[in-house]
Design brief:
The chain is an alpha+beta fold. It contains three helices and five strands. A hairpin with a 5-residue loop joins strand 1 and strand 2.
Length: 158
């Protein structure tokens, strides 16, 4: 059974209602046109499949081993660079950025076990992911997790 992320339930419900209304209108406007109905149904299945795939939340068995930092998200590592982090540490840190395409699972997980020592939500914009300012200007949550071996790790969900 495929699990859906709770954030996806409302968009999926709205999409289903919208597609149903459009289907009824097509049947009312072109009742004898089978090819219009078939094209619409194919597009509707594709759109529903895309939404289901985007909001899926597969079960992951993440082991929190003492000396392992797991990737917090599916996707491709696009940046590894030293940056000045000014929100919590106020110093130089290593930033690892993961780009999630629409085909990746869009669920973020914590990369290590430990104690959450800081958490803050930031309202913001919705810039495209490849914009260099997106990690600072977009809506996001910053979390700092303290780990006995690695120290404090700042984690941003954008």
């Amino acid at each position: 059974m495929m699990r859906l992320h709770p954030e996806g339930r409302m968009p999926l419900a709205i999409l289903l209602i919208l597609l149903t209304v459009i289907y009824i209108l097509i049947e009312y406007v072109w009742p004898q046109s089978l090819w219009v109905t078939r094209i619409f149904l194919l597009l509707a299945i594709f759109l529903l499949g895309f939404f289901l795939q985007f909001f899926r939340n597969p079960v992951r068995h993440q082991s929190f081993e003492e000396d392992v930092i797991s990737a917090p998200a599916d996707g491709k590592v696009v940046i590894i660079e030293k940056v000045h982090e000014s929100e919590y540490f106020n110093g130089e840190r290593l930033q690892i950025s993961i780009f999630m395409s629409p085909l990746n699972v869009h669920v973020n997980r914590y990369p290590i076990s430990g104690k959450v020592s800081y958490s803050r939500y930031h309202a913001g914009k919705f810039l495209v992911a490849w914009n260099p300012k997106s990690s600072l200007l977009n809506e996001r949550t910053t979390v700092v997790v303290e780990h006995p071996k690695f120290g404090s790790l700042l984690y941003r969900q954008i």
